[in-house]
Write a structure and sequence with these properties.
The protein has helices spanning 36-40, 53-58, 61-69, 88-92; strands at 22-26, 46-50, 73-77, 98-102. The chain has 106 residues and is of the alpha+beta class. The protein has a domain at 31-101: Alpha-Beta Plaits. The chain starts with 21 loop residues before the first strand and ends with a strand.
Length: 106
């Protein structure tokens, strides 16, 4: 099961950037799947999912223990191309696990 909040009535009022210019990057060592990003993103960029095996394997031992303590679930930017660079997700994340990264022109 995934967590997703429906889009806001007027997301353009807050998120004025063009889609695809930035992408949210989630620090797997910090994310605790509290879903604040899911709740605030008006474009449905995030979902809480089971931690992918490759992502789990890449974590240090303490990171794997932390992930286990949080049900081996984390936020994933499943629709990163829809990001409009408002930064609400980064502001809302209690762990500071999200940063917006400028994407190369494509």
């Amino acid at each position: 099961m995934t967590s997703r909040r429906p889009a806001a009535a007027d997301p353009g009022a807050v998120c004025k950037g063009a889609p695809g210019r930035v992408a949210p990057v989630i620090d797997r060592r910090r994310c605790e799947a509290k879903a604040a990003c899911v709740a605030v993103c008006p474009y449905g960029v995030f979902e809480i999912r089971a931690l992918a095996p490759a992502d789990r394997a890449a974590l240090p031992v303490l990171g794997r223990l932390k992930a286990w303590a949080h049900g081996n679930r984390q936020a994933y930017a499943v629709r990163a191309a829809d990001c409009r660079a408002c930064g609400l997700c980064a502001q809302a994340c209690p762990e500071g696990a999200i940063r917006l990264v400028v994407q190369p022109p494509g």
